[in-house]
Amino acid sequence: MDKAGLLQLPGRPEEQAWLRERLEALTVREGIALEAAIRQAVDIPEIHEADVVITSARQYDLLTAAAQELQRVVDGLQSDLPSDLVAEDLRMVLDTLGDATGVERITPQATLNNIFSSFCIGK
């Protein structure tokens, strides 16, 4: 089974088929272009080594761990690991970066809790 076939895709079957086709066609070059487009969309500036200041050994250790975890993500993508395993490695990267920055990752459960606490659904 291909990488896209392992994903739990949202939407109607025809939307899932469209997205699955796009994921299967994604090449490394397109992946790089996609990353650049995402960075531009969220307005993430280019960061250079001279711009980064790490103020504690804890931050350094967490950022080093995040870099190693991110390398596992890249290795997993290059070796065609199942997407759910790669996604879990990516979650670990986000959690480690959250620990380093003090910003918590928004989990699916937190999103659902927010929806159900803010809206009257089913009444």
Description:
With 123 residues, the protein is an all-alpha fold. The chain contains five helices and no strands. Helix 3 packs antiparallel against helix 4. The longest helix is centred in the middle third of the chain and has 22 residues, at 57-78. Mean pLDDT is 75; it is low at 1-7.
Task: Please give the structural blueprint.
Blueprint: H1 13-25, H2 28-41, H3 57-78, H4 83-101, H5 108-118
Question: Main attributes?
Answer:
single chain; 123 residues; mainly alpha; 0% strand
Query: Poorly predicted ranges (pLDDT <50, ≥5 residues)?
Result: 1-7
Distance between the termini: 42 Å
Helices, by number, come to 5
Query: Which term fits the overall shape?
Result: globular
**Order of H and E elements:** HHHHH
- Percent in helix: 55-70%
> Sheet bearing the most strands, described?
none
Determine the mean pLDDT: 75
What is the strand content? Answer: under 5%
**Radius of gyration from the alpha-carbon trace, in angstroms:** 18 Å
**Helical/strand content category:** mainly alpha
Number of strands: 0
